Amino acid sequence: MIPEPDLEFVEDTWFPALTPLHDHWFRVELHGGERIPADGPTMIVANHSGNLPVDALMAQLSLHRASGRLMRLLAGDVAFSLPIVSELATMVGAVRASRDAAGDLLRAGEMVGVFPEGYRGLGKPYTERYQLQAFGRGGFAATALRHGATIVPVAITGAEEIYPQLGAVFRGSALLGAEGMKTSNIGRAEGAAPVDEALESLVLGVADVLAEGASTPLKDLPAWLVGAEGAAERKVLLELVRDVVLSVARGLGIPYIPTTPFFPWLGVAGAVPLPSKWRIDVLDPIDPRDWAEGYRGGFMEDPAPGAGGGVPGPVALHDDPVSVLGLSGEVKGRIQSTLLKNLRDRRSAFY
Q1: How far apart are CA 234 and CA 217, in angstroms?
Q2: N or C: which end of the chain has fewer CB within 10 A?
Q3: Which InterPro entries match (predicted)?
């Protein structure tokens, strides 16, 4: 059973905490908020970017202001891997992403927030900014068709610039293992020891190096750090650090570790998001069943009732690949077109 959000906490603590970031740091502008249905099963489908899911939080606040409805975010496994974050996510209405969870929420008439690009969109390089990644296999479209939920496409402009990703320390199968990438994008790192063993090895390795160099004059330390004298020791320490990183990632299900102009070089300070100017556009709602029937009927015909010859009967739209993939592509296309228009019209990412 899906836990209910703590609405008192959301109204009195969560949204007020997000307000300074929303109103004064990112200066979010919402357009088309009146298009959000006042009630009934609703699926908000948006683009995803920024390395951390800040866009989901800003959208949750913006759409709540416009509609009075709480967007129940479908979150990845990472959000439920950390004790404090997991509890907070549950309190503000997030649920672990799955078709079953989305279906339960829609049957209850909730507004569900979906980011079909997932980690592919969240962690794409800055050179690919505002280029939408694959919308999975159309799972959100099949779910909306099954439950008759109104789809509301949402385009978020500005989040790409908060953490410009220059590269990644580890990414994909190097971090999660090939099988983890094949199954769910969240898995287990190959070749990494349990985190407690990895940390123990790192501590002992650092202790050994310090013990061996205890008699080394302080003036010789720079040579050890960058010169040939300490090359072997540095290599060992780097391997131990790498094993710790992989072990932590394995435990938390982190799919990549990004590098930006400021992170990890400036430490915690490098995690402060850049103050880009945001615009959130709520696009025209889509009745998924009406759209899919019209789309499918344009070039396919269901057999007449009672047709012989072993001809199968009409397929359910949510099981029809033509309907599902067509609807998914339509939503993606509308969002991509809006993003490109906004990029042409804006003066700067930070104005």
Answers
A1: 18
A2: N
A3: Plipid/glycerol_acylTrfase (IPR002123)
Contacts with 230 (C-beta within 8 Å, 6 or more apart), sequence order: 223, 224
**pLDDT tens per residue, the chain (351 residues)?**
899 999 999 999 999 999 999 999 999 999 999 999 999 999 999 999 998 899 999 999 999 999 999 999 999 888 887 788 899 999 999 999 999 999 999 999 999 999 999 888 888 888 899 999 999 889 999 999 999 999 999 999 999 999 998 876 555 444 444 444 344 333 333 334 444 454 555 555 555 555 555 555 555 555 555 566 666 666 766 676 666 666 666 655 666 677 888 887 787 788 899 999 999 999 999 999 999 999 987 766 654 454 444 434 456 899 899 999 999 999 999 999 999 999 999 999 998
Q: What is the DSSP letter of 11?
A: I
List, in sequence order, every residue forming a beta bridge with 150; answer none if it has no partner.
42
Name residue 283's amino acid.
L
| The 71-75 sheet, strands edge to edge | 29-31, 279-282, 150-157, 42-46, 111-114, 71-75, 95-96
